[in-house]
Structure formats: C-alpha cells, structure tokens
Amino acid sequence: MSRVDVKKPSLCTSEPLSQETVSRALSAFSKIVKSCYGPTGRLKQLHNGTGGYVQTTSQSSALLNGLSVTHPLLKLLTASVQNHISRFSDGGLFTAILCCSLLERFQDLKVASCMCVKISQHLLSSCTDYLTSEACGCRIPVDFNSSKILLDLVRSVLTSKRTCMLSRKEADHVSILILKAFLLTVPQNVGTSVRLGKCLYVPMKDKSVMDSRVYAGLLIETPEFDLTRMLPAKRTASSPIKMALFSVSLSGDFCNPGEGAVVVHHGVSLEAAVLDQLLGLGQRMVKDGVGLVICQKVVHPALKQYLKANQVVVIERVGVVMMEPLKEMTGSQPIPSLQCLSRACYGNLKDLQIEYFASKRFLHLIPDDPAVCSLMLCSRNETAWDELKLVCQAAEHVLQLTVKDPWVLLGGGCTETHLSSYIRHKATCIFPLF
C-alpha cells in the first residue's frame, strides 16, 4: 500500500517551549495543581471518560495518577513530580507548581534554553546547600526522645488534606496511631543493617474515625470459629505456635503442564492421588507439631477438615499482599510446592487471638518481635477512607525518612518564604544595582 503523504524526516527543535500548544497545555496543567494547593485549595473529581468510579481528591499522587496526559512535555513533568512523591511522599503539589512557574518565567525571559538550564541548576544547588547547612534558620532537628515534633510532623501531613474531613480531635487521634504504628515497625534488635517493618491498613468504612486502632502483628479477616477448641490443649502460654506458610495452592487442582504431556496409568484416579498426597502432607505437619497453616490460595476441604480435627488452625485465601509480612513476622519460608515441605520452612508465633469489630471477625497473629503491625483505619465513607489511607501512608513514609535524616523544615510557607529571601539576598550581593 502506497503512502498518501511522502514520509518526512524527523525534526528536532531547540525551542519547543515557544510553541503555542505547549504554552496552553502548561497553563492548563498549572491551573489544575494551583487550584488544589494551600488551605483554600479546591477538591477535584476524577472520572474516566467511559464511565466508572469517580474519585474525589486534592492529593498530588492521586491527581497525577488519574490525569490522562498526552503531551510529551507534560508527561516528562508529571513523571518528575511522581518520582519526587515516591521518594518523599510530600510536597508534590508545590513541586508541580514550582516547575510550571519556572517554565513560564523562563518563557518570558527570552533567553536561550541552555542558559535557563544553568540558572535552574545554580538555584537548585544554592538552595540545597543552604538547607543542609548549619546556617539555615528554618531547619529543626528531630529529637526521638520526645514525641512532640514527630506528632506535629504527622499532624501537618494529615490536616493538609481536606478530603479526609478530620476534626482536630480526630486528626490528633490518627496522628497518635500512625506514630505508634511507626514505632512498632522499628526493630528491637539492631544488627549491622536496619530494616524497618511494615504497617498494613485494615479498611473499616462507615465507622467513626475515633474507632481506629493499631495492633502489633497481623489481622486477618476470618469466618467465625472456636479458637480455644482448635489450638492444642497441652500448649502453654509461653510455648510458641509453629506455623506453615504455603504459596502453592492446596486445593488439589492439577497444575497446567504447559506443552508437556501427562501419562496416567489405567485404573489410577488422578484426583484421588492428589488428595492422598495432600493428606500425607497434612499428616506430616501434624507430626511436626504445626498449629497454624496459612495458604495464599485455596485449601482442599478434606485437608482442611483433617487439620481441624487435629487441632490445627487453617487460614486460606490470604492473598499475595500478606505473604511478605507473614514471612518477615514469623520467620517462615513460603512453601512453593507440595514436595518442598521441610522443618526449616516453619515459622513461629507468640499467640493467636480473635478480635471482633462490628460484624467482622479477625484472627490476630501476635509475633515475638512486632516488626509488623496492623492499623484498623475507620472513616465515614469510601471516599474519605481512600484519601485517609493515602495520607496515612505518606505520613508513615515521612517518619521513616526522619530515621535516615533527622531534620525537618518549617511548614506553612515559612521555608519557601525564607528561601525566597535568601535568594534575593544572594542576588543583591552579586548584583548590587538590583
């Protein structure tokens, strides 16, 4: 098939910002992020053009993920801001506004692009050097012997998002819970390398925010059963519970052989053979003294019944998200195959308890070293809960960053105003006439 138009060679221009289409796209993006910023910022509703869920937010992370950006310049700009958010979890809107403002001002200067790049690099290095220096007047050290600065830091992140609809009392309550959850993820025994634990968020919607609470260990929603009848009667309070963690399905379904062929002899039932293998696996775990079996996928009813009859608690369908925290908390190794069971794969738990909240029941896995915790987060509705979860995750990440670099900057525009005065002072020293 012949071309309608003759193919043209690729053309690269050195002044893409001077194009009118670029200016319009940049101006529209700048208005979106500016209208969300600050105490008078407005909320945005994101909706797919083909229908579906409507998201109400003012957070930069949710806003940029929901926007459909097609222009190459805006793609680069949003990717840069998203990288900033992934590293620091805060200041996304300010970063986007700053980038847009710099691009708009550089357009008005009518200077070469290479000069704009040099100016930006010089300003960035000057601001970074000043903020990390001892002479910086808006930098405060974090004292981990007191919770005041840490609570103020978390509260400043929470109260900046209006979609959460938090009162002062609710913001204080959630701030305390986030700080408690963060402290639970700090390991008690520090070796050559320090690795923080993980906090999992348990959704509880249509409830008061004041009902939120934090638990050391993991909460797994389960159907109702009598835990006292299932755990071994001879177990003492001080003896640990041995646990087996399976990443392979225990449903008895035959796995897909791919392009290979499976040969089954005459008179042999494949289902019965797999079930015998599962029951043999259960007998071995009972013999090894396993008290808890957790499977990422499904457990065969016959195997489940056999284990329950031998006082073994069985939890299935926990999902892939729970596997890494379970591994980290219990020291168990996920078992990927029915042939890979060994005593080295087992982990240990300190205790098991049943927690009731509203109409839901949770199995509370309590470890010896609570490096993993569960934050039961309550909110009035689904929209407020989604926003509150993002804010809590951002606040948790900010606390983690203070461990690496125990310094914080003043908020409320103080740091920005201070930096602006510093840059003007430096410019006056270099160019006295201005």
From TrEMBL:
Pfam families cross-referenced by the UniProt entry: Cpn60_TCP1
The organism's place on the tree of life at top rank: Eukaryota
GO CC terms of this entry: cytoplasm; kinociliary basal body; nucleus
GO molecular function: ATP binding; unfolded protein binding
GO term, biological process aspect, one: protein folding
PANTHER family membership: MOLECULAR CHAPERONE MKKS, SYNDROMES PUTATIVE CHAPERONIN-RELATED
Official protein name in the record: Molecular chaperone MKKS isoform X3
